[in-house]
Structure formats: C-alpha cells, structure tokens
C-alpha cells in the first residue's frame, strides 16, 4: 500500500521512538538507540479511521492530568500558538488524533466561562474512564513496537505527589488497596475561604430539620430564637446547613475513603455497568426488580430502563439509578412520581428537576417541569430527566457527584449556583450507593478514574464533622518564660465560641477568665504570677436563642509556674578560711546564697545573676565559727524577681585541728629538734617554749611554710629541761587565726 505524506512522516517518526505508558494509561515518547534495528513502519491512517469511528459512535470525555498549567495549542505542535492554558482535572472532549514528529496529539474541545475552544494537547495528559480509548490504543498502537514502560520511570508515577501534602497519605492508602485506581487532582484555583463563603449563600446547602443542632445554621435568617424553630427553606423539612457541616462536606479529604471516594468518580458509561449492578443499587427501594408501573418502555424494569438510557446517553446508569434513589427515597411515595396529583395526572418527575419551593410549591414546580417537557409516561420521565442531567451537568464539566453538589467547575454557567441538589449530603450518599454496588459485584479492582478537587489555602487538616453534641476540645499548654501561659485547642465543629476556665489551687474551684469566638482557638493568660501553679480547662458553646448549648469540659491541663528549686551538690571547708558551695543547675535566671553565723539570722551574702553559675566560695569565714547555708533560685519577669523554695540547710563548723608534736629530742648539748604532724590546711605554725612546766611560754619560732614539719632550737643551754608546744595558723580576710595548742612535750638538753 502506498503511504501518503502524513503516513510516511508518522512511520519515520515511529521508527525512531518507543511509546511508553504512564500511570494514567497514556503514552510517553522516548527516542530509541540509533544503533538498534529500526522497527517496521505502519500506516497510522488506519488508527485515525478507527479513532474517527469511535468518536462517531458517541462523544469521548475525559480530564487533563498534570502538575502544571497545560498549554492547549492551535495545531499539533508546541511551536504553534497557545489557545488557552488549563489546570489539572479540567474536562475536555476528544475530537481527533494526530501523530507527527513531535508525538501523539489529541484534538480537544472545551469551554471556559461559557466560551468554547478547540486545540491540541500531548496525549499523555489525557485520562478517561471510557475504556474505548485504551482498547483503541491496544488495537492500533501497541502491536507496532509501542512498548509498555515502567510507570516508575515516567512523570506522575506516584499519583499522590500531584496533590497537596494533606491529601497524599489518603490517596496512597487507596492506591495500595486498588492499584488500578487513578486519581487526578482538579486544581480549581479557587481560594478555600471564598468557596466556603459562596456555599453559605442562603438555601444553597440544606439539611433535614431533624439533623443534629450542630448541623443547622443559627443565623437569625435561618433560626427563630423566639420560638426555637428553624426556618424551612425548601419542601417541608429542609433547613439551612451550618457552616461547620458545610465545611465538612465541602472538604474532599474527608471522603478519600473506601466507602466515600466514588463521589469523585467520572460519571461516564462503561461496559462494567450491568443490570445486576443496577439492581443492587435499587435494592430495598420501590424500584427493586420491578417493571415500570404504567408499562411504558415496553414493560421493562427500572434497572433495565436505567441501563438502556445510560447506554443511549453514554452516562453511568449507576449514577442515574443512585440519583433517582436519592431524590425519591426508598418508598417512592412522592407526589412528583405518583402520576395522580390533581391537575397533573399522568406526569412524572423522577429526578426532581426544577422542583423547588416551600411545601406544595415543590410538587407544583416539579410537575410543571414534567408537563412542559412532555414526561407523561414513566419511561419518558426517566429518560428526559437523565438527558437533562447529562446535557446540563455531566457534559458540561460537572461530571462527578461532588461537582453536581458543589459547582466549582468554570466551564459553563459560572460558579457555585449551578448545583443539581440542595441536599448537602447527597453526593456522599450517592457515592456510597455506587460503591456498595461495585463491592457486591466484585469489581472494585477495576480501573476507575477519580477527579478530586483541590483548593488554595485549605485548612492544614481535614475539617471535622460536627457531632450530635459539641465535641470536647483537646488543649495544650505552653509556659511563656513565666510571663504568661498560652492555651491552644482543636476545633469543635459548629461551635460559636469557647470559654476558658482557670483554677489557682490544686483542688480549688474554677473561674471563667475569658470567652473567645469560634475562629479563635488559642488564648494567652497574661495575669499569671510566677511561682504559682495554675489549672485550665475549656469548653465550646453554640448559641440557641437566649440559651447556650455547651460541650463537655476538656481535660484539665496544669501550667506549673513554680520556680524550680535547686539541690545541694557540695558544701566543704577549704584551708580553714573558705567554704566551697556547689549545687545543681536549674532553669532560672540566677541564685541567691544565704548564710547565718552561729545562732544568728540568715543574710544574703551573694547574688549570682548568671544562669550558668552553680558554685560559690565563701572566703569571709573565720575558724572557730559555725556557719549555716541555704540557696534559692530566681527568675526575673518585668523587672521583678520571683523565687524558688530554699534548699535544705547545710551546716559547717570551721574548727582548726589541734597540732601534734611527734618528737622532741636533744641533738647536742645546745640543740633540740622538734618534729610535728603536718596540717595541710594551715598556712604555718607557731612554736612556743618555756623553761617551766607551769607557764612563761614565749613564741620562739614562726614557721611560714605549711610543708615544714621540723625545726631545731639552737638557743638552749645544756643540762637544762625545756617545755615545748605548737599551734597552726591561717591567714584569713579578717586576720590571722590560730588553732589550739598542742600538748606540751619536755626534753633535757
């Protein structure tokens, strides 16, 4: 077969590349080694023809998957003009395919703010749950040396890495359990606070009147404080949702679980949808294994009707079944589908399309919609409602349960207002119905695609679900260098504020010291006094008319502002003139040393203002005295000192040792040698002599060296008896102090 110019170019290109798949099941191009044998060329026109037939059967929708703003080009070349840039998660429709020297390209159609565009994107950034695309690739590309490639070697192999950190662990857990599941971040570019504000628009999000009080708004426009009743916003029992519960359902992270994740599933038709699966969704309802009551649709069952309509419209029949179950309930006793409402006999509105108002207004508005559209059989009503949902929502960017509840897709109809349902929990309920059906069918390991919205400046943690009663907070305490105490606590969903209580005694009563609003989850107590112990607890409250509803108190937390007391390490005397003190280091600004002499009073003898100082030498002591010491630490706050408790006292008596004459002997007729025991603490010795045992002693020598322990007296007469005694001495800051005398020793020369 002769190749045209485009086919030749494609064949030449394919001979030089290997196409590899990434985690989305799309293809990536890598140049082959020039030395390798070139694979045979193939005619890409066959693939183009098959692709065109695929699109002719019915439209193929998908989403963009990438971690940057993707450029859409005017032609299949990165050198062509950029038509628009799109974020990850944007819905596009495939309208063609092209292969050239720069790669495999898809032609796409999309809209931004109701303006429609067309252009080209590299194929690797498109992902869809429509199995026809992967079948086309397998049939026309993979047999032509388009080799599979390890997903660990291509962009985005770790799906969670494209998401913010607070999403990643949740997605990783799901992917570990279901390796075929694909997660695409829908980067809305919207600020979380702005979205929340828009979703709090009056009547945009409603809950059942019998819901917990924490789920219902107490704003004056939503709650009558005089009667204690909530104001009906739609039907007979729907009231405005509280901000706390809206935050919970709006936060996608709360639903990245096995049971709830299917609210993010693309709602496209696929071959895994079966009549049996639909029956599992309808189980326990008025539609289960039941034919349409009026015999329309050639006597088919509800499950068969949903499957047939889904195939024709190319939307998920599981979605259609779940939506009708959600709108009509298990009993199916609404006047909207009875076919007997006065003035509207034979008309049905299964999807509650445009059924709004208070009381019977809901029925009349919904049946007017049915009458205007000619839904005068049950099958027509099912198909007509399904077609409206598909054309108004699924084909226009709102292609998940979540996006039909929260309109954050900018393709068509602006933002926020174009929601399908006011029921706040509807997307979660419908997603769970579908998941249950998949589980019972045993197909949870199929290749599902989940488009998960991401907002800018989201809370660091998923928003908590309001409990039936206000949840008890968990508090943390921080001591700010004794100047203040800071309390922080987790959010109690639906709280209007928090009350802080404090006790200044171990078992004392608590007093309320502050009330803060719901957005404040910390409080700094600046009235504390260092040296004391404080106990705190917090409780949340919400206003209901003239009364408050309270949570339980938090666990009590203690802030110990007592100054840590030190403990002794040593207290010892050195050389009779110094007492050396040391103690354990504590977290204080300094220490004060106190001393008393004898039975006197304690006096502060030293203040150490350095935190690192943990020793002191008292050199003002005197031998023969008794000293008692104690120490306490202090911290300084705002120029004032606050003290710890004292250490136990340490008592020391400075008593000089009595010297001992070891030997006194005559070494000649006029020499007497004295030897004594050394006193290592003394500075020297005084030697005294007398010729009478009864007295008359005179100092005959001062020995000024501590280590000298002998001396010879050369000023004696022969044949005469002498008497000797000694005493040691020390030089102190208050003068020289001496020990007691030694025992007298006599010797005859």
Largest sheet: 5 strands, antiparallel
Shape, per Cα inertia axes:
elongated
Low-confidence stretches: 1-39, 145-157
By secondary-structure content and strand pairing, the structural class works out as alpha+beta
The value of Rg in angstroms is: 46 Å
The proportion of residues in beta strands is 25-35%
CATH class division of the largest domain:
Mainly Beta
Distance between the termini: 146 Å
Estimate percent helicity: 10-25%
- The overall strand count is 40
* Secondary-structure arrangement, i.e. CATH architecture of the largest domain: Roll
Note the quaternary state here.
single chain
Q: Can you give the mean pLDDT? A: 90
- Assign the CATH topology of the largest domain: SH3 type barrels
Total helical segments: 14
The strand line-up of the biggest sheet is 8-7-6-3-9
The total domain count is: 5
- The CATH superfamily of the largest domain appears as SH3 Domains
Descriptive account of the structure:
It is elongated, with a radius of gyration of 46 Å. It folds into 5 domains: 5-157, SH3 type barrels (Roll), CATH 2.30.30; 178-266 and 400-463, no CATH class; 475-559, Immunoglobulin-like (Sandwich); 568-654, Immunoglobulins (Immunoglobulin-like), CATH 2.60.40; 661-748, Sandwich (Immunoglobulin-like). Helix 2 packs antiparallel against helix 3 (131-140) and helix 9 (302-313) runs parallel beside helix 12 (378-392). It has 14 helices and 40 strands. The termini are far apart. A 5-stranded antiparallel sheet has the order 8-7-6-3-9. Strands 19, 20, 22, 23 and 24 form a 5-stranded antiparallel sheet that branches. Strands 27, 28, 30, 31 and 32 form a 5-stranded antiparallel sheet that branches. The chain has 749 residues and is of the alpha+beta class. The model is unreliable at 1-39 and 145-157 (pLDDT under 50).
């Amino acid at each position: 077969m002769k190749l045209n110019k485009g086919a030749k170019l494609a064949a030449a290109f394919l001979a030089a590349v290997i196409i590899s798949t990434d985690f989305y099941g799309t293809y990536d191009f890598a140049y082959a080694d020039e030395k390798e044998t070139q694979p045979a060329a193939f005619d890409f026109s066959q693939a183009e023809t098959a692709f065109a037939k695929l699109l002719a059967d019915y439209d193929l929708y998908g989403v963009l998957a990438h971690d940057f703003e993707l450029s859409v080009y005017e032609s299949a070349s990165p050198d062509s003009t950029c038509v628009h840039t799109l974020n990850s998660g944007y819905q596009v429709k495939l309208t063609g395919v092209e292969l050239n020297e720069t790669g495999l390209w898809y032609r796409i159609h999309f809209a931004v703010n109701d303006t429609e565009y067309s252009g080209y994107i590299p194929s690797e950034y498109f992902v869809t749950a429509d199995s026809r695309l992967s079948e086309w690739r397998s049939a026309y590309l993979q047999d032509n040396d388009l080799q599979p490639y390890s997903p660990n070697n291509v962009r985005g192999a770790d799906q969670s890495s494209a998401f913010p950190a607070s999403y990643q662990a949740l997605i990783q857990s799901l992917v570990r359990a279901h390796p075929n599941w694909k997660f695409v971040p829908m980067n809305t570019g919207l600020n979380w606070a702005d979205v929340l504000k828009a979703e709090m628009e009056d009547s945009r999000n409603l809950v059942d009147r019998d819901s917990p009080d924490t789920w219902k708004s107490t704003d004056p426009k939503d709650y009558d404080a005089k009667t204690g009743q909530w104001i009906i916003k739609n039907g007979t029992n729907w009231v405005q949702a509280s901000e706390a519960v809206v935050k919970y359902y709006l936060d996608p992270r709360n639903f990245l679980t096995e049971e709830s994740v299917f609210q993010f599933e693309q709602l496209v038709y696929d071959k895994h949808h079966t009549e049996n699966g639909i029956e599992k969704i309808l189980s326990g309802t008025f539609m289960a294994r039941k034919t349409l009551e009026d015999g329309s649709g050639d006597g088919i069952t509800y499950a068969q009707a949903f499957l047939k309509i889904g195939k024709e419209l190319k939307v998920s029949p599981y979605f259609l079944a779940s939506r009708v179950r959600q709108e009509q309930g298990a009993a199916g006793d609404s006047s909207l589908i009875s076919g007997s409402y006065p003035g509207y006999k034979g008309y049905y509105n299964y999807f509650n399309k445009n059924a709004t108002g208070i009381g019977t207004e809901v029925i009349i508005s919904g049946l007017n919609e049915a009458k205007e559209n000619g839904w005068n059989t049950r099958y027509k009503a099912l198909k007509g409602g399904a077609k409206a949902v598909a054309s108004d929502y699924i084909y226009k960017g709102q292609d998940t349960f979540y996006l039909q509840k929260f309109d954050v897709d900018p393709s068509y109809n602006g933002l926020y207002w174009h929601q399908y349902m006011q029921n706040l929990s509807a997307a979660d309920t419908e997603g769970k119905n579908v998941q249950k059906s998949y589980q019972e069918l045993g197909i949870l390991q199929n290749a599902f695609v989940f488009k998960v919205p991401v907002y800018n400046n989201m809370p660091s943690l998923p928003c908590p679900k309001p409990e039936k009663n206000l949840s008890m907070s968990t508090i943390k305490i921080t001591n700010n260098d004794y100047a203040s105490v800071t309390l922080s606590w987790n959010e109690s969903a639906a709280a209007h504020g928090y009350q802080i209580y404090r006790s200044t005694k171990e078992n004392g009563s608590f007093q309320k010291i502050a009330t803060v609003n719901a957005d404040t989850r910390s409080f700094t107590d600046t009235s504390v006094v260092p040296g004391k112990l404080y106990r705190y607890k917090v409780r949340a409250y919400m206003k209901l008319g003239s009364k408050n509803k309270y949570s339980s108190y938090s666990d009590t937390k203690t802030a110990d502002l007592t100054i840590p007391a030190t403990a002794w390490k040593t207290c010892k005397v050195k050389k009779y003139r110094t007492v050396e003190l040391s103690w354990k280091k504590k977290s204080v600004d300094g220490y004060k040393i106190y001393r008393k002499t004898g039975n006197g009073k304690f006096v502060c003898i030293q203040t150490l203002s350095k935190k690192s100082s943990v020793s002191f030498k008292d050199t003002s002591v005197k031998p023969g005295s008794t000293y008692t010491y104690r120490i306490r630490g202090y911290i300084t706050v705002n120029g004032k000192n606050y003290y710890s408790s004292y250490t136990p006292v340490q008592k020391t008596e400075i008593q000089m040792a009595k010297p001992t004459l070891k030997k006194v002997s005559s070494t000649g007729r006029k020499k007497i040698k004295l030897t004594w025991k050394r006193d290592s603490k003394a500075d020297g010795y005084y030697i005294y002599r007398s010729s009478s045992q009864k007295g008359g002693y005179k100092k005959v020598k001062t020995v000024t060296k501590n280590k000298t322990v002998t001396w010879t007296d050369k000023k004696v007469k022969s044949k005469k008896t002498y008497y000797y005694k000694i005493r040691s001495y020390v030089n102190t800051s208050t003068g020289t102090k001496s020990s007691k005398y030694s025992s007298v020793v006599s010797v005859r020369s």
